[in-house]
Design brief:
This protein is of the alpha/beta class. The chain is built from 20 helices and 16 strands. The structure holds pyridoxal-5'-phosphate.
Length: 489
């Protein structure tokens, strides 16, 4: 098997093995790691369609994580994708109203982040062992709501690691917040941080690129890493479910092996959809990716015009995990379409002026978006027609997909990537279905949602309002470095 090296998006002379890139998270110059050459899937769809999720995940990940042994990688996969998921398929495909929903919310925190964050701690521990690193790994994470909880669940009580999660004060749903502040584990810390998600992400990034602080903590036996989707240890595991969804459709006789399909992905930081794009580069038969945004439609504008412009008002929407104006992973696509030199220039322009333009284009990615009313309507319509309750993020994708079909008349079979359980956003989901719920309490509405949807309250959020709050920190974003130093005393 050929070795895949990881190089920087701003400097191709930065070059590491997969395990080193997983440990580092981000390049020293602020760039991200990308595979120097995209591996090609050599197994046929027919062969892959016979595999279960773990088997398929191994086929995909072994092509990217080439410095892991078979035993190491299987250890990681088998520990990640087990009975923590409430369905043996791990990622389930369901057909409603002529489209397919890939339900990625059957893990411990009922959002798709579990798909990658269930395995990241194992990949990281294995990487540390392989590289003979004995420092305590400190995971620093900014979250728009779902990453934080999934990372906390993944890393809680994992020997040799600590995790500190920052969520934007007032920027997450009540259920998301309650999930985080009740997190147990002797190595976990959760804090609200002033500002929005982009502020939180920039504050965390400023630590990763602060050589002095890194040295100071290195001397004390700590090493920082990231659980955000900038880490290839998160991105690559997500490639697997695009293959899995495709194989499920073949297995069920819905499509023929080799036939192209579309994917619609509710997008924020551009991690999920980029994993799909990687799958296509490896050989998965995909026609278009529909990149769905909410009212923070910076990506929609980018794919329509070639100009990325974050200079606009940040909106709080009913799909908070997509409330983002700086989609970090887009840098990887930009680099794949241009060069390291050009990417470095564009990212400099982004950080100095908040805007950049480029002419190179990904013709297989289409930008769409849905505003708040369209999102609510999508939930209402799907419920009325199919008794199927969408969460707000998946609803953005469904509404965007409907617009795309109206615009293009494209009838390609389509998978909508379903990123969260409606229970995580019970209040907005119920209100979309019936206005009468608009002043109700989010936690009370879980019982109501059980009646409406006919799906039992998932164990991870049942009675969550009764759990004890264990974390009550508020961090000023200018003081994030002191906050982290304090935690590591
Ligand atoms: C994180 C998240 C998204 C956005 O995914 P990206 O990889 O950041 O684009 C969409 N929906 C939900 C529910 C999420 O948690």
């Amino acid at each position: 098997m050929k070795d895949v090296a990881y190089i920087g998006t701003r400097d191709k002379n930065i070059r590491m093995k997969a395990s080193e890139a997983i440990l580092k998270g981000i390049c020293p110059d602020g760039g991200l790691f990308i595979p120097e050459k995209m591996p090609v899937m050599e197994k046929s769809i027919d062969e892959l369609s016979k595999m279960d999720y773990r088997g398929l995940a191994y086929e995909v990940m072994s092509l990217f994580f080439t410095d892991f042994t078979e035993e190491e990688l299987k250890y990681c996969i088998n520990n990640a994708y087990d009975s923590k998921f409430d369905t043996p398929e791990i990622a389930q495909v369901v057909e409603k109203e002529g489209v397919y929903f890939l339900e990625l919310f059957h893990g411990k925190t009922i959002a798709f982040k579990d798909m990658a964050l269930s395995i990241l701690p194992y990949l990281m521990k294995t990487s540390a062992k392989k590289n003979d690193i004995h420092k305590e790994i400190v995971i620093l994470t900014a979250t728009s709501g779902d990453t934080g909880k999934a990372a906390l669940e993944g890393f809680a009580n994992v020997e040799g690691t600590r995790i500190i999660v920052f969520f934007p004060n007032g920027g997450v749903s009540p259920v998301q917040k309650q999930q985080m502040v009740t997190q147990k584990g002797k190595n976990v810390c959760v804090a609200a941080i002033t500002g929005n998600f982009d502020d939180a992400q920039s504050a965390v990034k400023s630590i990763f690129t602060d050589a002095e602080m890194i040295k100071e903590l290195d001397d004390k036996g700590f090493m920082f890493s990231s659980a955000n989707s900038i880490n290839i240890g998160r991105l690559i595991p997500q490639v697997a479910y695009y293959w899995y969804a495709y194989c499920q459709l073949v297995k069920k006789g819905k499509i023929k092996a080799g036939e192209k399909i579309n994917f619609t992905v509710p997008t924020g930081n551009f991690g999920n959809i980029l994993a799909g794009y990687f799958a296509k580069q490896m050989g998965l038969p995909v026609n278009k990716f529909i990149c769905a945004s909410n009212s923070n439609k910076v990506l929609y504008d980018f794919f329509r015009t070639g100009t990325y412009d974050k200079n606009r008002d940040f909106m709080l929407t009913v799909s908070p995990s997509m409330d983002i104006l700086i989609s970090s992973n887009l840098e990887r696509l930009v680099c794949m379409l241009t060069s390291q030199e050009e990417t470095a220039d564009l990212m400099k322009s982004l950080s100095e002026k908040g805007v950049y333009s480029m002419t190179a284009k990904a013709y297989d990615i289409v930008g769409e978006y849905a505003n708040e009313e369209e999102t609510f309507q999508a939930i209402r319509v799907m419920y009325a027609n199919a008794d199927y309750v969408l969460d707000t993020h998946t609803a953005v994708a469904y509404a965007s997909y409907s617009k795309y079909v109206r615009e293009t008349q494209d009838t390609t079979p389509t998978v909508i990537v379903s990123t969260a359980s409606p229970y995580k956003f019970a209040k907005d989901v119920c209100t979309a279905i019936d206005e009468k719920y608009k002043d109700c309490d989010a936690f009370e509405l879980m019982g109501e949602l059980e009646k409406i949807s006919g799906v039992a309250i998932p164990a991870p959020v049942k009675d969550i309002e009764k759990r004890e709050v264990l974390h009550n920190n508020l961090c000023e974003r200018e003081k994030i470095k002191d906050f982290v130093r304090d935690q590591l005393k």
